[in-house]
Specification:
Blueprint lengths: L3 E10 L2 E10 L4 E5 L6 H9 L6 E6 L2 E5 L2 E2 L10 E3 L11 H8 L3 H10 L15 H14 L4 E5 L7 H17 L3 E5 L12 E4 L5
Parallel strand pairs: 3-9, 3-10, 7-8, 8-9
Antiparallel strand pairs: 1-2, 1-4, 4-5, 5-6
Helix pairs in contact: 2-4, 3-4
Bound molecules: adenosine-5'-diphosphate (2 copies).
One adenosine-5'-diphosphate (ADP) binds next to loops.
InterPro entries: AAA+_ATPase, ABC_SmlMolc_Importer, ABC_transporter-like_ATP-bd, ABC_transporter-like_CS, P-loop_NTPase
Organism: Mucilaginibacter psychrotolerans
Keywords: ATP-binding, Nucleotide-binding, Transport
Length: 208
């Protein structure tokens, strides 16, 4: 399982500081990151994924310090990529549902199970433009799971789902996270939807 340590991480855009926090994420935990719009939730998630560099401070994921003072110093090729659910899904317009998953894994049985989890079996040959918003969001989640990540980073992953679908999906998701021995970080502005799911919390905003 993955331990993440964030030390006085600092990010500024155009000279305006948006993020300064210290946090250790315990392996196997499911961390909820909340805070008002603009608090830096997406920025934090992308920095943990290594998609954006912090301006100062360090982020350590597992044994590897990914960044130190904006300089990428150790990004081990052996390190498994995190699963990332982008807020805007970031799907491939020319790939079908099935192709999205095949791009991430060769394991046909795993793909079958993922399609069932996302209730997308009958949409396997649809491209994103022919999926509803909720179906697209489920595909984004399935694609993140397909690589069997040890670290799952999700940005408002349930925003387009109705309550019934959300409840069912979350139950499956919790099982998969456990099976994968993964650590999960979920960004949400809606605390209630994650009640009883997360066992740790980071609240952004309101810090100096
Ligand atoms: P949240 O996800 O909590 O809404 P974000 O991480 O998206 O917050 O953004 C934090 C702050 O940083 C916001 O004020 C936002 O406008 C700003 N910001 C985010 N990305 C950029 C960027 N690439 N360039 C300039 N400012 C940005
Ligand atoms: P989200 O939080 O919805 O995933 P982003 O992280 O892309 O979206 O952006 C969050 C906020 O940061 C938005 O208000 C957006 O306008 C602002 N932002 C994003 N990129 C830039 C940028 N390059 N320059 C200025 N502001 C940006």
């Amino acid at each position: 399982m993955i331990r993440i340590h964030i030390e006085k991480r600092l990010k500024a855009y155009n000279g305006i500081q948006v993020l300064r926090i210290e946090k250790t994420v315990t392996p196997g935990s499911i961390l909820r990151v909340t805070g008002p719009s603009g608090a830096g939730k997406t920025t934090l998630l992308k920095m943990i994924a290594g998609l954006i560099a912090p301006d100062a401070g360090t982020i350590a994921v597992g044994d590897a310090v990914w960044y130190e003072s904006a300089m990428k110093i150790n990004f081990s090729p052996q390190q498994r990529q995190p699963g990332f659910v982008f807020q805007d899904y970031a799907l491939f317009p020319n790939m079908t549902v099935l192709q999205h998953l095949q791009y991430a894994t060769q394991d046909a049985a795993w793909i079958t199970r993922l399609l069932a989890i996302g209730q997308l079996q009958t949409f396997a040959h649809h491209k994103p433009a022919h999926l509803s918003g909720g179906q697209q969001q489920r595909l984004a989640i399935l694609r993140a799971l397909a690589i069997r990540p040890r670290l799952l980073l999700m940005d408002e992953p349930f925003s387009a789902l109705d309550v019934k679908m959300k409840t069912r999906l979350i139950a499956d998701l919790l099982l998969v996270i456990k099976e994968l021995n993964a650590t999960a970080i979920i960004v949400s502005h809606n605390q209630q939807e994650l009640d009883g799911i997360c066992n740790d919390e980071l609240v952004l905003g309101g810090e100096e």
